[in-house]
Amino acid sequence: MALSTITTRGPSRPRRASGPLKLVASRLLFLFVALFGVVTLSFLLVSVTPGDPAELIAGPVASQDQIDAIRADLGLDQSLWQQYLDYIGGLLRGDLGTSYYTNLSITSEIGNRLPATLILIALSVVFAAVVGVGVGAAGAYFRGRWPDKVGRFGTSLFQSVPDFFLALILIYVVFFVLGLAPAPTGQIGIGDVRPEKVTGFITIDALIAGEMGTFWSAVSHLFLPVLTLGLVYAAYFAKTARSTVGKALNSQQAQFARAMGLPERTVLRYAFVEARGTIVTYAGVIFAALLGGEAIVERIFAWDGIGTWALQGILRLDVPVVQGMVLVAGAITLVTYTLLDIIVGLLDPRITHG
Questions:
Q1: What is the pLDDT of residues 8-42, one digit of tens each?
Q2: For the chain, which domains are there?
Q3: Considering only CA atoms, which of 288, 220, 240 is closest in space to residue 131?
């Protein structure tokens, strides 16, 4: 009987060890296929959009010959298939085209503006997760008592307030009335000198250059936009954390831990471990959603990020700009979801990945 047991258990170990590798390989394969789909959709969705960029560029008084000349110069007179092949060829060379209006490289424009958006979104999600999970966990632990009631009131309040409206309120109260934050003039003050570009992130580049004044100016200018987005999305984290942590606190594992005499802080730690997969997933989803959803907040704070840039491109029907934004947002979203799938699978081996 003992020999049969050993024989049965032996072969299962390599299969369990290969599980994470199989998970990573399958998700990376899916990522490659999905990225090709995003590239194709980013071209087709924008290319078939009603409206002629050549007419907008030429102006209302331009003749048809002038419009045709602009269309030929932009390559819009070619067939859709030829435009697609040119687009794919440019992507393989790292060339996303040039803006119809500024004649600047889309690749360089994205490289210059994306770091500003990424640091804003990343800090906002971290702030939202810390505050929201704390409020939600307190509400789950003190369910029905005053911490829970205050947390639910705050959650309902910030869920119902649009982020751009909260931005205007915070600018008036925190900057104009209290004077606790700098003016919403962008990533640094008007009189500050931008450090030499190394990473694209002003705070990091300022530290590398040893310009501490610019560094602290950049940090202070992050305060209001991060607070705006963080408070709005902390409400969503709080609602999720209250549900997941509360369910974990009432689980059989938590009841068994209490019956064994373990301290309450240990039980609460077990509850956080049980709920971490849901919280991490929610953080990734919000990060991906904010990538294209905070353009108005960027505009309010004069934040020279990719959201404001894409919004200007949409209003002017600048096709390469819109295609570049769709491609970058789609690619980052796919990468985020793929990493989330892998991380959650590693955190919770009970999840079946096929």
A1: 444 444 444 456 677 677 777 877 888 888 888 77
A2: 106-347 (1.10.3720.10)
A3: 240
